[in-house]
# Entry
Amino acid sequence: MNFNKNKKNGFTGYIIFWLSQSVSQLGSAMTGFALMIWTYKQTDSAMTVSLMTFCSYMPYILVSLLAGSFIDKHSKKKIMLVSDSAAALCTVFICAMLAGGRLEIWHIYVVNVITGFMNAFQQPAQSVAIGILVPKELYAKASGMALMFSCTAVLGTAAGIYWYGNKDIRALDGQEEDCFLYYSCSYYKRSAEVVY
# Structure
């Protein structure tokens, strides 16, 4: 009887984990979309926006080769907390620089390198945590829910497009990109508070 109760609590813990990670990843996707718009409006260069993606994925690819063995030897929870905290700090940094009028493209490149590095650890640790939290007989259900993690990029972009097109945000006399980026960063900060 106690065994079944622990299994149920394990899946409840997974649902909380799933919700918090989904909200966090949605905020990250919206912030990434906002940064792309802001960067393109500042430079009018597709190459600059492409370099943002390069700075995000190159550290991810390089570090992923070694991240698996590190994750196996260390606490998955700590790895995810450090990774999510670093992403939140990067977003706060971007927001602070934007609010101070000092945000430059190279700041975004550095932040993307840091978040790419952290994602190389966070995503595999998240996958392993699913196997730890969920009882075997509920793997299929958890797997279906985990698929939603990959949908947050699409949903974040869709939410970003909707938010960017909002007339209240665009009514700031040419400052709509800055305003959208600020509100997107604020959303990420609120979602980080939910996670922690």
